Amino acid sequence: MMNSTIKFLIFFFSVTTAQPLKGQNQLIFSDQRLAVVYPIIQKFKNIISADPLGITKTWVGPNICNYTGFYCESPPDNSSAIALASIDFNGFQLSALTLDGFLDQLPDIAIFHANSNNFGGTLSPKIANLFYLYELDISNNQFSGPFPSPILGMNSLNILDIRFNSFTGSIPPQLFTKDQLDALFINNNNFMQMLPDNIAISHVTYLTLANNRFFGPIPHSISKILSSLSEILLLNNLLTGCLPYEIGFLNEAVVFDAGNNRLTGPLPFSLGCLENIEMLNFAGNQMYGMVPDVICALENLANLSLSDNYFTGFGPICLRLIENGVLDLRNNCIPGFPFQRSIAECVAFFAYPRYCPHMASYTYIPCWLSNFKTPSLDLPELAP
């Protein structure tokens, strides 16, 4: 009797466990490449702990190309094949402890966007084997730990967006020497290091370093380091020291924002050479001196923010910008001007000697301006 019962149970469990496998074998995929990623997707689906929008309800059956967030194309190595080429999870609010075992197992993936979810953990070293991946966006998630070093081995990557996470430590210098990298968004993390000075040999067009903990001075090589950028965002860091004369050679800059740092010294007249600049922000620093009219005369300037510093005066051209709402000089040390710091604050600040190196360079204009001229300046070590 006991042997019969055992044989029945063995037969029952073998039949019931075999049914799902039989059903899975009946799935018909439009391409073998899709059959390969199907179990990977289903495994990832099972570890998703929150799906408030019901996205994963569509991740059923062999038609992977119709899953919400999944997109198929022909892979570069076979124009007649169909493969999972891109994923767009932006704003899906999915939660999972890790992307390991999912992203790193998608051999044909070219674009992966996962902005504004609740993914965490680290990135697997195996992502370096994703030979087609050229856009990686994991911004606004819960990733932490050091900079994901496997990214350094990705030779196809053009766009990297890891902003609004909790990465810490320093950024490997090799990142800034990757010639194929066009856009690098690393703002709003907790990176702490001196401002990198080796971006010069990179071809980065878009770079945001804001809202981290970069410290030290802005390097004199800035005219080479950031020469190709139209937006230079250094705000909300721990930068110190005086502005370098070479900042006036950032000819492509439309926005230069270094607000809320610890910068000091006067504004260099060379800023008047930023012919494309529309927004210039040095608010929330420890800068002082006169606001040069040559800067206020910039033709495209729409916003000049110098509040919360220790400036002591301005010229007639700057007055027009104040009247037009372009120039903000609130909370400075300008005698007789409204909304300024208290006398006690200003006296306390100027009680200590203030000095910047290469002081002669601050009144030098390195470009031709019909209304402003300065004598020639021999600064070979500062030349761009």
TrEMBL record:
Signal sequence region: 1-18
Pfam families to which the protein is assigned, alphabetical: LRR_1
Keyword set, alphabetical order: Repeat, Secreted, Signal
UniProt keyword Protein transport, yes or no: no
Chief site of localization: secreted
Listed GO CC annotations: extracellular region
Subcellular location: Secreted
InterPro entries, per database record: Leu-rich_rpt, LRR_dom_sf, LRR_extensin-like_regulator
The UniProt record lists the keyword Repeat: yes
Protein name listed in UniProt: Leucine-rich repeat-containing N-terminal plant-type domain-containing protein
Organism: Solanum lycopersicum
High-level lineage: Eukaryota, Viridiplantae, Streptophyta, Embryophyta, Tracheophyta
